[in-house]
Amino acid sequence: MEFRQLGYFIHLAGTGSVSQSAKVLGLSQPSLSRQIQQLEENLQVELFERHHRPMALTDAGEFLYRHIKQPLHELEQAMALTRRFGDGRQNRLIIGSVVSVLYGLLPEVISQLRQDIDGKHPDFDIKVIEMSFEQQVTALKSGEIDVGFGRFVCHDPLIHQTFLRHEPFVLAVPKWHPLAQKHEAISLSDLANDTLILYHKTPNPHVSLTESDPLLQLFEQTQTQPKNHIRVRDIQVALAMVAASEGFTIVPDSLKTVRTEQICYLSLAHEFTSPMYINTLAHNPIPHLAALHGAILSVYERHHIQAPVPFTEDH
């Protein structure tokens, strides 16, 4: 029995089509069929009911599928991560980050990290990739990135999160908006007749819109709701829509330098904040992670930001 045959079996069980799986796997249909037949011969059972269209698993096939799908996936991840020890990744740190964190202190952290490491590891390289939280989870598991910076809590047991800090939310309104002339903090009730621009990913269909969208949750906490809301694909588009006078939005404080010619950023009366996390693969040692923690501590100290407790315990 070969390891790859189990992978072919998992893929074919998912599609139920030899032609479709063969195309994705880069095999001819006869070659894929032969690999599956060899697996069945080694196990001395039939795994597929071939007269079904799409192909269906036998009871033995169902049993094998249930028991090897997750372990096989984890083994593939472990192999991908192990290969990094031989491909130069020990001298490289690949970081994935959501857009809102890139607008904040992350560039300064990376600059500090380069300064801290260059003397000890002159060949050290840092690469930053903009990606959503969902993309980070996938990239961490595949080994595409080493570390992710995001704002959502992750419930995946394979992902380890370290809390960094709470960043204040600010209100973004067009420069012509009447509230732009106010000097005191703004209450969300003052915006009840305006259009809220949402920018988070389409919410979970199994829960209500209010429960799944962070901005609508802020309104829920103050027992008010905006009269209208629209949804755009990301935070940059949301701010462009504010600049075009299509409504208002609420963003982390680090974005208040964006489009300042057309947008006025105002403090909110309620102390709403956006959490920030470092995401890594659980039980996976990351080269230079301690150095990254040290760079974050240095930058936070310069900006008088309270240091994350796990970092202070490490240093």
From TrEMBL:
InterPro entries: LysR_HTH_N, LysR_subst-bd, WH-like_DNA-bd_sf, WH_DNA-bd_sf. It comes from the Bacteria. Residues 1-58 form the HTH lysR-type domain. Keywords: DNA-binding, Transcription, Transcription regulation. Pfam families: HTH_1, LysR_substrate. Belongs to the LysR transcriptional regulatory family. It comes from Moraxella porci DSM 25326. PANTHER family: LYSR FAMILY TRANSCRIPTIONAL REGULATOR, TRANSCRIPTIONAL DUAL REGULATOR HCAR-RELATED. PROSITE patterns: HTH_LYSR. This is HTH lysR-type domain-containing protein. One of its GO terms (cellular component) is protein-DNA complex. One of its GO terms (molecular function) is DNA-binding transcription factor activity.
